[in-house]
Amino acid sequence: MGKGYRKGRLGEEIRRIISDMLLRDIKDPRLSGLVSISAVDVTEDGSYATVYFTVFGNAKEEPDEEGKNEVLEAFKSAKGLMKREIGKQIKLRHVPELLFKMDTSLEYGRHISKLIHELGIEESGNEDE
Asked: How confident is the model over 50-60, as pLDDT tens digits?
């Protein structure tokens, strides 16, 4: 039963380390904007960790596809630095291979909200009405 908790704790620890590195250590201008690590999923055997990230645009516009691809390439180029830091901070025999994926859940939520709005369905925050 304890094994299921280990990969969750490891994923959270990797998420924390990468988030701290984005704030302090990584100087790549492609990662200097509003980039957030939303989750890290570690495989059962601990050999791979999928890092989900979100790219936020400014208040008026969404980041374009080219900007998102640049951020993905920046993550891939900083992978070695991230693995080294994870290895320093977490005592592991084998540091997981990092895979980076765009988290599209916010975009999907906005799309669904737009469809609901276009259909004219009232969004109600109060269930008692």
From this structure: 999 988 765 44
Structure tokens at 92: 């592991």
Report d(CA 124, CA 47) in Å as an integer. Answer: 45
Q: What residue type is assigned to position 60 of the chain?
A: K
| pTM attached to this predicted model | 0.75
**Burial per residue of 106-121, b for 16 or more beta-carbon CB atoms within 10 angstroms, e otherwise:** eeeeeeeeeeeeeeee
**DSSP secondary structure letters along 87-109:** HHHS--SSPPEEEEEE--HHHHH
Fold of 2-104: GMP Synthetase; Chain A, domain 3 (3.30.300)
Q: Are 36 and 16 in contact (CB under 8 A)?
A: no
Given a contact cutoff of 8 angstroms between Cβ atoms, the answer to whether 100 and 72 are in contact is yes
